[in-house]
Amino acid sequence: LDRDVQQQTTRKQECERFLQQNQNDLRATERDLERVTRSCKDKQRMREQAIRTCQTSASQVDRRRAAQTDIDRQLSEAQN
User: Fold this and answer.
1) Which of 2, 6, 50, 57 is 20 to 30 A off residue 41, Cα-Cα?
2) How wide is the angle at C-alpha 43 spanned by C-alphas 37 and 45, nearest 5°?
3) How far apart are CA 39 and CA 45, in angstroms?
4) Which top-rank group of organisms is this from (predicted)?
């Protein structure tokens, strides 16, 4: 009987250690996932900012090109 109790106690302790290890592994995995998620979100924000910057630059170039075309047209008309 004592031997059975001791075996059950040992099994219970092993189960508790196993459970604790699994919980620790799960927390570590959650931290890793959170880190990867943050990294992905940071990269996405940087990508979106780069796209906005490119769009702004393209718009500025288009406006300047249109203004220069208008100036060129005015100069051409003035010379004629």
Assistant:
1) 57
2) 100
3) 10
4) Eukaryota
